[in-house]
Specification:
globular; 2 domains; Glutathione S-transferase Yfyf (Class Pi), Chain A, domain 2; Glutaredoxin; single chain
Length: about 210
């Protein structure tokens, strides 16, 4: 059975858990604390970040690679995207993993950086969300009424952005559809299932599993 090292609130770990949940791929889950990473996790993945998925024949320690691996096992998304939407998916995931995440960290965790203007970084994130707003419909997920790869890859980061100042986020009239999409995600059974609270794993812990049966 696969082993998944995870941290509940990490957006990278969240999107890996979503993919595994959608694929109904059962694994032993090991919840960690970022300030006390298990030796075994570091041994199999020296970069020391979650998620880490340990399979019989390999270790996958990048969240997008975990999503792609699940997609190879099962068709977890109901829609077959056309070439244009596939390119847009890749481009937007890259934008969120690089530029959005860069500015998000300096906005949400500004005290960790020197000479940071948190308002500037907040506005840079907002500008990316305004671009996303322009392609959204009023209902459903990003491309249709069915969830897809782009949804699960970027919504955990938009959630983090909102958490930094929920009232400010709610008052942004330029991203009303983004806010509605995020609320759809946060209120979904999918989100509730992947955010189950596990006890922190220790070497003598009894095995626990994800998804919960």
């Amino acid at each position: 059975m696969p082993i998944l090292y995870s941290f509940k609130r990490c957006p990278y770990a969240m999107r890996a858990r979503i993919a595994l949940f959608l694929g109904d791929i059962k694994c032993e889950i090991r919840e960690i604390r970022l300030n006390n990473k298990p030796d075994h996790m570091i041994k199999v993945s020296p970069k020391g970040t979650v998620p880490v998925l340990i399979l019989k024949n390999k270790v996958i320690d990048e969240s997008i690679d975990i999503i792609n691996w699940v997609m190879e096992q099962k068709n977890i998304f109901e829609d077959n995207l056309d070439e244009k939407d596939m390119h847009l998916t890749d481009a937007l995931i890259n934008l969120f993993d690089t530029k959005f995440k860069y500015h998000l960290d300096r906005y949400k965790y500004s005290s960790r950086y020197e000479d940071v203007d948190s308002d500037f970084h907040r506005n840079e994130c907002l500008s990316i969300l305004i671009k996303l707003e322009s392609i959204l419909d009023k209902d459903g997920w990003i491309f249709s009424h069915n969830i897809n790869k782009l949804d699960i890859a970027i919504l955990p980061f938009i959630r983090q952005f909102k958490i930094a100042d929920p009232e400010w986020f709610e008052n942004q009239i330029d991203i009303l559809k983004v806010n509605k999409l995020l609320n759809k995600f946060l209120n979904s059974d999918l989100f509730k299932n992947i955010m189950f609270k596990y006890e922190v794993w220790k070497t003598d812990s009894k095995a626990v599993f994800f998804p919960m049966s």
